[in-house]
Write a structure and sequence with these properties.
Elements lengths: L7 H16 L4 H6 L5 E8 L3 E2 L3 H11 L4 E4 L6 E2 L4 E8 H31 L6 E3 L9 H10 L13 E3 L1 H7 L2 H11 L6 E5 L2 H6 L7 E5 L3 H12 L7 E5 L7 H5 L5 E3 L2 H4 L6 E5 L9
Parallel strand pairs: 6-11, 7-8, 8-9, 9-10, 10-11
Antiparallel strand pairs: 1-5, 1-12, 2-4, 3-5
C-alpha cells in the first residue's frame, strides 16, 4: 500500500505526531536494556486472517526512527494472509526496531483491519453487480489513508469530503424548503459540474425526484421490500434514471439481501468507523547482538 506523493506531507505529520505521543522524552525501557550497537532481525507476523494494507506506512515509521533500518515487505498489498504468515522483515539496530515497533504496528493493524472488513463485504455481494462504498465516518486526520485501505480491500470510495460531490441530505432539504427547491438551488449553483446525490427516506420522497436531474439517490434506512420497490420504480423513469444507493444498518448478515434488490451501490459506514484493527506482532529472529559501525 504505497502512499500517493500528494499525501506525503500529511503522512509525515501524522507519523511525527504518532511517534511523539508514544516515545515522548525517550524510550527508556529500550535504552536501558538494549545496547546501542546491538543489531537484530525481526519479522512482523499476522496473528489472524487478514488483508495486508499499510505496510508502506509502517516502513516509513521504522525509517523515521532509524533511517538505516532495512524494511522489506514479504507479501503484496491486498493479499489474504493466514495466521503466522510473515508480512514484513526489519533488520538493523535493535533499539530502532523496538522504539518504532508499536507505532508501526498500529498503522499496519488499523489499515489492514479496514481492508479486511471491506473485503468481507465485497465478497458477500459478489456476482450481484452491487458495489460497496465507504462514507465520511473516518478517523479525523486519517481519511485518505482509511479510504485508501478501503480500495485495497476491493471497495469503492464515496466522496472524499464536502468538496468533490453534492449530497443533499435531510437537513439540507429542510433548510432549502423541500426536495425540489434543494435540487433547483444545486442546479443553479453547480458550475463545477459536481455529481449530485439526494437522500430520501421513503418512496413518496423518491417519486418527487422523477424528472429532476440527479445522478444518484440515497435510499436511507429502507427495508428490503422498500428497496426492491424503489428499484422497480426507477426502472420506469426515462430518460433520467439515477443510480440507487442503499444506506443504513448494513451488516455482513444483511448486505447480500440488499445487493439482490438491484441497487447499484451500498454504503457501509462500518468499514471505517467500526473495523477492528488486524492483530499483528513483531518477533525478533534469534537474539540481538553484534555491533553496528
Amino acid at each position: 500500500m504505497e502512499i500517493e506523493p500528494r499525501l506525503e506531507p500529511g503522512v509525515a505529520s501524522l507519523i511525527s505526531a504518532a511517534l511523539s505521543e508514544d516515545v515522548g522524552a525517550g524510550d527508556w525501557t529500550t535504552e536501558w536494556t538494549v545496547g546501542g550497537r546491538d543489531r537484530a532481525e525481526a519479522t512482523v507476523v499476522a496473528k489472524e486472517p487478514m488483508i495486508l494494507a499499510g505496510e508502506g506506512l509502517a516502513r516509513r515509521v521504522f525509517h523515521r526512527v532509524d533511517s538505516e533500518l532495512e524494511v522489506d515487505a514479504l507479501l503484496p498489498t491486498g493479499v489474504w494472509a493466514e495466521p503466522g504468515t510473515p508480512l514484513l522483515r526489519v533488520r538493523g539496530r535493535a533499539r530502532g526496531i523496538l522504539t518504532a515497533e508499536r507505532t508501526a504496528l498500529n498503522f499496519l493493524g488499523r489499515l489492514s483491519g479496514i481492508a479486511t472488513l471491506t473485503r468481507r463485504f465485497v465478497d458477500r455481494v459478489g456476482g450481484t453487480g452491487a458495489r460497496i462504498v465507504d462514507t465520511r465516518k473516518t478517523t479525523p486526520g486519517w481519511r485518505e489513508l482509511e479510504k485508501l485501505a478501503v480500495r485495497v480491500g476491493g471497495g469503492t470510495n464515496h466522496r472524499m469530503g464536502l468538496y468533490d460531490m453534492v449530497l443533499v441530505k435531510d437537513n439540507h432539504i429542510v433548510a432549502a424548503g423541500g426536495i425540489e427547491a434543494a435540487v433547483e438551488k444545486v442546479r443553479t449553483s453547480n458550475r463545477e459540474g459536481l455529481p449530485v446525490e439526494v437522500e430520501v427516506g421513503d418512496l413518496d420522497e423518491l417519486r418527487v425526484l422523477r424528472g429532476l436531474r440527479v445522478d444518484r439517490v440515497l435510499l436511507d434506512n429502507m427495508g428490503d421490500g422498500e428497496l426492491r420497490a424503489a428499484v422497480e420504480e426507477v426502472r420506469h423513469w426515462d430518460p433520467l434514471r439515477p443510480e440507487l444507493e442503499a444506506s443504513g444498518n448494513m451488516t455482513l448478515e444483511r448486505v447480500r439481501t440488499v445487493a439482490e434488490t438491484g441497487v447499484q451501490w451500498i454504503s457501509v459506514g462500518a468499514l471505517t468507523h467500526s473495523a477492528p484493527s488486524a492483530d499483528v506482532s513483531l518477533r525478533f529472529v534469534g537474539s540481538p547482538g553484534g555491533a553496528s559501525p
